[in-house]
Amino acid sequence: MIPNALLLGALAALSNAAITNGAFVPSTGKYSFSNAFPCLKQQALTVPRMSSDWSDFAYDDPDDLDPIDTRTYADENDSQEYKATIGSQLESPDIDWHGDPIFVPQGSVLPLTVENVQGVLAACREEIGTMFGYSAENRGVGITGGVDFIELDGPSVVVHLKGRFWHQRTTVLDRVGAYIMGRIPEVVDVYVADEWELTDEANDEAL
Question: CB under 8 Å to 84, separation ≥6 — which residues?
Fold first, then answer.
């Protein structure tokens, strides 16, 4: 066996020879030892250069984040008075038409006009009101949804759903459509302009 002292001495001599004969090349950032060890042709030690790379840095814009509802709601088993108290602190869905509701039984035959559609829709908001957030009691448990008339598209009625519903939005649209078509038989369809309004995502993002 080679004594430890002899081995350490040999390694120290080899290291000193490399440092003595090696040359630093500024343009490459490397030490060249070709002269120190002729048997090792063109061997070089690379000195790493440290730098910061911010190319993957991203800023989260608060406007791009999903809204968070921090409001407190009543439970469905709470009293109507408590639900109304909570709901009275929340805004009712806007209604952009303020004419009188047209209450007529299903099977009635009203002509297809914008006024009649608006009037029947106003009655619909009240008669199937448990679906909407127009009452303080409903808003108190987190139902803030509403429905607006947009336009007539020939014999079809275009509406807009907004806010949050407990029912599936497709169910809400079906109930509204059945109510209107059951009183204005000329209407052949009731639909939303944007199909995204019928998705769970639209409901979850609504406040």
Answer: 135, 136, 137, 140
Nearest 5°: the CA angle 44, 48, 53 is 150
Q: How far apart are CA 204 and CA 197, in angstroms?
A: 11
CB 164 within 8 A of CB 207: yes
Structure tokens belonging to residue 114: 């914008």
The whole model's pTM is what? 0.64
Burial-class residue 100 by CB neighbours within 10 Å (0-12, 13-18, 19+).
exposed
**Residue linked to tokens 């939303």:** 192
3-state secondary structure 136-200: HHHHHCCCCCEEEEEEEECCEEEEEEECCCCCCHHHHHHHHHHHHHCCCCCCCEEEECCHHHHCH
CB proximity list for 196: less than 8 A, separation 6 or greater: 202
What residues contact residue 151 under an 8 Å CB cut-off, 6+ apart?
158
Q: Tokens 């004969």 map to which residue?
A: 21
Q: Which residues have a Cβ under 8 Å from the Cβ of 99 and sit 6 or more positions away?
A: 115, 118, 119, 122
Region for 111 from its dihedrals, namely left if φ exceeds 0, alpha if ψ lies in -120 to 50, beta otherwise: beta
**Which tens digit of pLDDT belongs to each residue from 100-147?**
999 999 999 999 999 999 999 999 999 999 999 999 998 988 899 999
- Return the closest-CA partner of residue 173 out of 161, 156, 185, 155: 161
